[in-house]
Write a structure and sequence with these properties.
By secondary structure, the chain is mainly alpha-helical. The protein has 35 helices and 6 strands. The strands form 3 sheets. Strands 1-2 form a two-stranded antiparallel ribbon.
């Protein structure tokens, strides 16, 4: 079967299965022909194998047939053999070594086409060993009188030098002589060979530990050819029309591109070479027509060369303007390479200015690019995502102090439309821009809040943390602005922006009291209409935070921050009873949560709040605490119901016991032991209640408390040594006093030892000014007023006497009130005096 018949059969197949059947059948027939050594059909079989290889089917079984065809004396068979060898074999194939002798024989052939075939095979498949063996033969063709062989020899030599870099220095002189060739094809291949030699030489220098910019013998030889290369490029710009080399009205664009590439490599580290090529680069950039694709290719390579060499600033501005024109082109490929080149060039220039310490000039690539800022921003709206990404990279390099607000607004607009996987990187870059070029604190906070509002779900923890830091370090006015704006953003959000929720909840918990005051500000974008945030009620603030946890998508880490915000708000909104009560219920809600962290926070926060409330004295309308109540006024029975754990109570007891402060409770415990001191005249008093009331004598002061009392003097000696009542701190740090053989006092709040009123229950006092713990006052019968300080008229039996004291603290806020009370009276002919000191009043009130 001939090749055309196989192609016809394959095209006639309607399904892939039919095609596979045809190929399998034909491959089997080719294998049979190879096995039977059918030499007259060998070239036909290899041609069919090439077609089968193009379709993607395996053809490795025909590699040896290609080797046999290359050794054929007939040119058609040799041509098919070399073509099959270059397509079906790779440089890793073992059978390739068998072709070395055939290649050497063909290189010495008198037929230039046969020698050309061998040079093409060497240029495509030569290995390191083949290059060493065949390099001398290729070198002979570099001096061939035929341009056809010289250009092919240049390409083959490039392959040999890339495989054997140690041969580079031996062929430098040969390359220099070929640059004067008159043939157009030879010039292109020689320039390509010089470029490849420079690349290999630079790689060798790096491997030897030398700097890439350090001149080597090869580079030095090529630098002497820069004037020649510049002259060739200028001739191509000024030469007339040549039909053989003209492409779209551009004279030999391929050679111009190759020359510009070689000049870029030579001038990148040599100022003298750069000065020689400045004029021709300006000529190429100015005279090349950009209406055709060939002209755009030359201009792009010219821009690459200008940006790579240390040329003048005016030339760089010209290059940036060329790339700016590329951005207006309809072709996305041209726009892409323009954006990519601008980003790379601006980044390199910034790095150079940073290393050299030179400030930004008014006539450089950066300032020139600012003129094309609008065009770059318009690329963010391009439908092609690759164009948008390159424009985004370029905008980051364009930002400075003068345009940070406008470009950041464009970045935020693009953040709304960009793919989700790019939002994290854009948020991080916006943070860097804001951190470096922010004009004011309010603008910085506003930008970061807007970023979290748009991409709070994708923003990294660094963006959230930076927002919190900037808010906390700002002034009080920024605090009010941030908390109002975040509260509004939380109410408008659907709960998906987790970063916004975290920052917003923290800010409300930290500065929630500022929401109860209205706030007004003028935007910085030129709009003079002020924006006003209305004041919120405490319950509205609590409901705004509570609403976040009711959303189904609210994550646990946001709920944890909400619990912390509840605790902070319970102190900042403590003046509102409804809000405080609601916050307490919300804190207790998660005590049975499935999340261990939520449950732990809820229990700890509740215990903390109850411990803080336990330090307050009981109110008047509460029942009297039992005798075994602790310093918090909490008994063992009531502590369970109120939610205060025994550990919290014990810790609070220990903390308060170590504090060197005298409290009213301590005075109650001292008085319960009935220890009163009155200097050297102090005597213990024992009280007994008579079984039946006796007629009032009218002069006994004890009748003030509605009972009759018998005072027994006892021994006249002084009592055992013990802590003095004047030193109320002694019972905290000293050992406990010895028990006194006195009857226990039923009412611990009675400083003067009066028996309790049996007819009613005395509530525990909560007002520290009620020093005596007396029962509620009753209306006295009409009688002359009783003067405690010198009066002689005694009250009627069972009557209640109350004395109102008005005390003014002249050092309010500096020192607390401390009262010393002394009462003296005569009972049964004996003088009795009581002295007591009361302290522990709430600070700041008395």
């Amino acid at each position: 079967m001939r090749l055309r018949d196989l192609i016809r059969k394959v095209r006639a197949c309607k399904t892939a299965a039919e095609e596979r059947a045809v190929i399998a059948k034909e491959s089997a027939m080719i294998r049979t022909a190879i096995k039977e050594e059918q030499a007259h059909y060998r070239h036909r079989n290899v041609a069919k194998l090439l077609f089968i290889h193009m379709l993607g089917y395996p053809t490795h079984f025909g590699q040896l047939e290609c080797m046999k065809l290359t050794a054929s004396p007939h040119f058609p068979e040799k041509r098919i053999g070399y073509l099959g060898m270059m397509l079906l074999l790779t440089e890793d194939a073992d059978v390739l070594m068998l072709s070395t002798n055939a290649l050497k024989n063909d290189l010495n052939s008198d037929n230039k086409f046969v020698a050309g075939l061998s040079l093409c095979a060497i240029g495509n498949l030569a290995t390191a060993d083949m290059s060493r063996d065949l390099a001398p033969e290729v070198d002979k063709h570099l001096k061939s009188p035929l341009a056809y062989l010289r250009k092919k020899a240049c390409l083959a030599m490039g392959r040999c030098l890339s495989k054997c870099p140690e041969l580079v220095e031996d062929f430098v002189d040969r390359v220099v002589s070929l640059l004067k060739d008159k043939s157009h094809g030879v010039l292109i291949t020689v320039v390509q060979l010089m470029t490849q030699v420079l690349v290999i030489d630079t790689r060798n220098a790096i491997e030897e530990g030398l700097s890439p910019e350090e001149e080597t013998p090869c580079r030095t030889a090529f630098l002497r050819l820069v004037p020649t290369l510049v002259k060739m490029l200028r001739n191509l710009q000024t030469s007339g029309y040549f039909a053989d080399h003209d492409v779209g009205g551009i004279s030999d664009p391929f050679l111009q591109v190759q020359l510009l590439t070689l000049l870029r490599m030579l001038g990148s580290s040599n100022e003298q070479a750069t000065e020689e090529m400045n004029d021709v680069l300006a000529q190429v950039a100015s005279n090349t027509d950009s209406a055709k694709n060939a002209g755009n290719a030359i201009l792009y390579e010219c821009v690459q060369t200008i940006m790579a060499i240390p040329c003048e600033d005016g030339l760089r501005v010209l290059a940036v303007n060329i790339l700016g024109r590329f951005l207006l082109n309809r072709d996305n490929n041209i726009r892409y390479v323009a954006l990519n080149t601008l980003s790379r060039c601006i980044a390199e220039q910034k790095q150079h200015e940073l290393n050299s310490g030179v400030g930004e000039s008014t006539n450089n690539a950066m300032s020139a690019l600012q003129r094309h800022r609008t065009t770059v921003v318009d690329c963010l709206k391009d439908p092609d995502v690759s164009i948008r990404q390159r424009a985004l990279e370029l905008i980051y390099h364009l930002v400075n102090e003068s345009n940070v607000e406008s470009l950041t607004a464009e970045l935020l607009n693009y953040l709304v439309l960009c793919p989700t996987e790019h939002r994290c990187d854009i948020c991080a870059r916006i943070l860097k821009v804001v951190d470096r070029y922010s004009p004011s604190d309010q603008w910085r906070v506003d930008t970061l809040i807007t970023t979290l509002t748009i991409a709070g779900r994708e923003a990294s923890r660094n963006v959230q943390s930076a927002t919190v830091v900037y808010i906390s370090r700002a002034s009080a006015d920024i605090h009010a602005f941030a908390v109002h704006k975040l509260c509004k953003a939380l109410r408008d959000d659907d709960g998906s922006q987790h970063g916004l929720l975290s920052v917003g909840v923290w800010c409300i918990g930290e500065y929630g009291e500022l929401l109860m005051q209205p706030y007004q500000y003028v935007p910085a974008d030129g709009d003079q209409q002020p924006i006003t945030f209305q004041a919120m009620e405490p319950m509205e603030i609590v409901k705004a935070v509570e609403q976040l946890t009711k959303r189904h998508a609210c994550p646990d880490f946001v709920k944890q921050r909400v619990l912390t915000a509840y605790v902070k708000l319970s102190q900042r909104l403590s003046h509102d009873p409804m809000a405080s009560e609601r916050l307490q219920k919300l804190l207790q809600k998660d005590q049975t949560s499935r999340s261990l962290e939520l449950q732990l926070r809820s229990c700890e926060y509740n215990a903390l709040l109850h411990a803080t409330k336990g330090q307050r004295l009981p109110r008047l309308n509460q029942p009297k605490a039992s005798t075994d109540a602790d310093l918090f006024g909490v008994t063992a029975e009531s502590s369970v119901g109120e939610g205060v754990s025994e550990g919290v109570v014990a810790a609070a007891k220990e903390a308060l016991a170590r504090m060197p402060v005298v409290d009213v409770k301590i005075l109650q415990k001292r008085l319960s032991a009935d220890e009163f001191a009155n200097g050297d005249d102090t005597i213990p008093v024992r009280r007994t209640v008579a079984s039946a009331p006796a007629p009032s004598s009218g002069g006994d002061l004890l009748d003030l408390f509605g009972g009759e009392e018998t005072v027994s003097n006892g021994p006249t000696s002084a009592p055992a040594a013990g802590p003095s009542d004047l030193d109320l701190l002694s019972d905290i740090f000293a050992a406990p006093a010895a028990p006194i053989s006195a009857a226990p006092v039923v009412n611990p709040m009675d400083l003067f030892g009066a028996p309790p009123v049996v007819s009613q229950t005395m509530p525990a006092p909560s007002n520290p000014m009620e020093l005596f713990g007396a029962p509620p006052s009753t209306t006295m019968p009409a009688s002359p007023p009783f003067d405690m300080f010198g009066g002689s008229t005694a009250p009627a039996p069972s009557a209640t006497v109350s004395q109102d004291l008005f005390v003014t603290n002249s050092m309010l806020g500096t020192k607390n009130v401390v009262l010393k009370v002394k009462v003296s009276f005569t009972s049964a002919g004996q003088k009795v005096e009581h002295l007591a000191t009361c302290s522990g009043f709430p600070p700041g009130k008395y």
